Amino acid sequence: MWRLIRGAQPDGSAERGAAGVIVAVMMLVLVGAGAVAVDVGQIYAERAQLQNGADAGALAVALSCKQGACNSALADGLANSNSNDAASTASVDLSVASQVTVTTSTKNGSSSFLTNLFANALNAGPVTVGAQATAGPLIPGSGSGFPLALSDNCYNLASGSQTAEVQKISYKPGGTCTGPSGTEIPGGWGWLDESSPCNATTNVGTNGMDSDPGNNPPSGCSAILDAWKATLLAGGEVKVPFPVFDTATGTGNTGTFNIIGYATFKIWGWKFGNNHQYEFRNTSTDPGMTSALACAGGNDRCIIGQFVKFTAIGSGTVVPGGVDLGTSEIRLIK
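^ that's the sequence the OP posted. Answer follows.
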């Protein structure tokens, strides 16, 4: 008599259907792995784009504020241009003085969320992705550039602008570039010791910057002066941030300048020596020059131009701490 008992069969038919269960379980694992690999990767990539947009927007709006009027509309355009799908939105917060905070977020259709690709299969909802950046102006406390220091007794920077008075800052005879006490370092006209050819690294502080005695500029300045000349002849502008000192002490190579900050000079002409690139548009017959601005004497040394307010987006390498003399750098704060 046949027993009605199910048992193992030689052909293994008792295991039929097990593969389907295993495949179903593995599909959940694969979908979960896809959600982690693809969706999380998408979130990180989106957030990186939004952070770039927030950084760019904060810097741009802060720069516009420093130049005159805050243009908050810049943030939206930069948020979109830094997003691969050009579907981002930005909000601007100006509530803190001298700071601009931009918050960016993903804009998918009419909602601010990022749709998952794989996690939807696991009944996971969309996620919100965003980023934030704050930028503001920084007054430099150090710098590196043309090795000439100017006195704060030479000008009134309070009126510094593109329409500021054109003036001549000269060395003796008839020197005007002196400290409040009338100090002029004999044998030098604000020339600074170089850290590299025609370049001096300066810092605001009381330790003083060493002078480089002599009537003529330090060596290695020919290429820089040629570049200034070429720019001006082509109709461009040459704006140079100079370190500014309030007091000068000592004589010759023992002289020092106390640097207090940096002021930008829009250069019209100069006479740092005789002939060639060392003098340019420094006589009364040159374009835009007058007899009052002329610097034609044999030993006369001068720089002709106007002090302007100047702000640029910085690299973050400048240390803050100087007096505000109209030159600043826009930098990300956080």
